[in-house]
Every structure is written in C-alpha cells, then in structure tokens.
Amino acid sequence: MKAVRLVQVGKPLEELDGAIPEIGPSDTLIRVAACGICHSDAHYRAGISKIDNLPVTLGHEVAGTVEKVGAEVANVAPGDRVCVHYLVHCGRCEFCTRGLEQFCPEVQMIGKHRDGGYAEFIAVPGKNAFALPAEISFEVGAVMMCSSVTALHALNKARLRPGESVAIFGFGGLGFSALQLARAIDCGDAYVVEINPAKLAAAAKLGGVAIDANAGDPVEQIKDASGGKGVDVSLELIGSAKTMREAVLCLAPLGRAALVGLTADSMSIFPYPELINKEAEIIGVSDHLASELPVLIEFAGSGKLRFPSEALRLVGLDARQINASLDALQDSIDHVRTVIVPSK
Fold it and tell me: Based on C-alpha coordinates, what's the Rg of the chain?
C-alpha cells in the first residue's frame, strides 16, 4: 500500500510502501477515494502543532469505499460509500456518553495520533464511518469531514439564530462552508472578511457581503455596512490574534464571537468597553461532534452546501504534489481546498 507520511518534523513528507492495515472485529477498512489537505497538516509538518508518534500518515478529511468490515460492524458493509469522522473515541467515558467525544481522555485524531488518509487504505472503527449519499462526490464528502462540520459546530456553539447577522473571518474551506451553512440557517447579513480578491468575489457570488481587509479596518467596514450596530455572531477561522480581536470588536450588544483558528499568540481585550459593557461572549470551538454529521450530510445532499469544481484543486497520492500543496498554504491560495485523489 502506498502512503505519504510525515517522518521528520520540518522535513517534506515521504512516499512509502507498507502493508494494508489489519482490522479488528469493530473496525472498518476503507479504500480512500479522496482526502483533503488541511492547514492543520501544514502545522504538523512544520512542528507548530506537536506530533509525538512519528512516522505517521497525515490526512483527517477522508471519504472512500468500504473494503472490509469486522464481525461486530453493522452500520456499513463492503461496497458502501462513506465519509469518516476523524475523532476516534472510547464511547464509555463521561464525555463520550454525553456526545462530547472531542474531550474523551482516550481520543485519537486520525492523521495525527493514528494513521490518516494520505494513503490508499485507512482503518477506522466502524462507528466512525458515515454513509455518503451518491449525490455527494467523494471529494466534497472528504472536505466536509473537517472544513464543513467544524464550521457547523462553530455556528452551533455561537447559537446563530434565523435573522441574525454574522461576520466570517477567512474564506478557506471553513469560511466557504460557514457562509453557506449560515444562509441555510436563514441568517441575516453575512459579512466575509478576506484579503484574496478571488475569494472575496466567490463570497459575494454566494450571497455574502465582501469585506476587503486590505482596503481598511474590517471592523469599521462591518460597522459602517451594518449601520453602526455590528454583528450578532462572528467566526474567526484564520488563526491570528489580530483577527480574533477584530472578531470581538465587530460584535453588537449581546454578540458572540466563536474562535476556531489556532495561534500561539495572545489576544488583548479591554474587558469593560469591549466585552463587559456589551455583554458579549468569546467562545472557544474545538473540532466537532459525530452527532452533527447527519445534519451536515443532509444540507449537502439537498444542495444547501456545495463545493463547485473551481473551488477544489485535485492532486494525486504523490509526495511532491502534496508537499507543494502544503507549501502553498503559507500564502493565500485562490481555491478553497486541495484534495488528494489516490486514483488520479
């Protein structure tokens, strides 16, 4: 089996041959049809997010076809099209029984703590495989498993209600999903803050109000466009202390800022004028929940969440192409997501 693996932090990924994974009675073997390349993967390669168990196969946005199932697996069968929930959890602890598996003390993220989808095959527990309807492509199904479902989780955590306004900072895979999902929830005005002209144009085409951060202070632009009020909900999807602060400053009274992006830098807030006086909230968002996937899949199946071909760039299961794609994430790429297609 061919796989592209992180062998040494700070070095390019390497293409290696290995055995097809063995599965236990509760596991599923999946032939990978598509795997998204996430910004987190670039962080793992660079050592910004620490990985202790090298070598490891990266890739946590996975969709494919069930090849084989263990004797205890009943929810999927060989030949089924599936997408994969990337958090492998115990199912027994306090958090798992409450449906909060991201806090499971035994949780493992595929593509970080265990081998992921930059490979021809992946083995996961059967409960992590979700049926992927035929009307959703493998490429879109893969991207949904992090970009889209994390955006949905952020909107859920921020308690976005119909008619409320929202500001989205960053228009990569998460922002592209967040705008469509917010509109599916019947939000009010949706402002998208970006610096990339192609992405600003794409946001406007999807019904967002494009806010060019290169043209001036995005907070002032949002307040001007909203008649001085600000927004009810903001999502920070970039991972910058600067944009996290802006996501808080653009809030209206009783507004909620959901912070999703990752940064090692601290954010400064003046508590009374910028938070307390508005009774605003800052909400941390970590991963997402398996229980959110059926709703997401329904949105995609009904056409409320779409990734047109121009939004995705496809590459093969090739170390050179994958490393180049990870390098490109250091800049602002025009497309939304790069997806590995092993058969390409």
Answer: 20
CB distance 2 to 17 below 8 Å: yes
pLDDT band at 65 (very low <50, low <70, confident <90, very high): very high
Rounded CA-CA distance 14/340 in Å is 15
pLDDT of res. 327: 93
| Residue 140: count of CB within 10 angstroms of its CB | 24
The Cα-based distances of 35 to 85, 86, 143, 241, 254 in angstroms read 12, 12, 7, 29, 39
- For residue 88, the SS3 value is strand
Query: What are the strands, taking DSSP E only, across 71-116?
Result: 81-84, 87-88, 108-109
Query: In whole angstroms, what is the distance from residue 246 CA to residue 224 CA?
Result: 14
Cis ω for the linkage preceding 342 (within 30 of 0): no
Read off the pLDDT of residues 211-229 as tens digits, 9 standing for 90 and up: 999 999 999 999 999 999 9
- pTM value > 0.85: yes
Q: Is the pLDDT of residue 152 over 80?
A: yes
CB of 73 closer than 8 Å to CB of 95 = no
Query: Which tokens in the block code for residue 128?
Result: 């992590």
Name the residue among 132, 176, 189, 121 with its Cα closest to residue 312: 176
Angle CA 263–87–297, to nearest 5: 100
Residue 209: CB atoms within 10 Å: 17
pLDDT at residue 334 tops 80: no
Whose structure tokens read 């398996």?
A: 290
**CA 316 from centre of chain:** 21
Structure-block tokens of residue 67: 């090849």
Q: Look up residue 168 and give its amino acid.
A: I
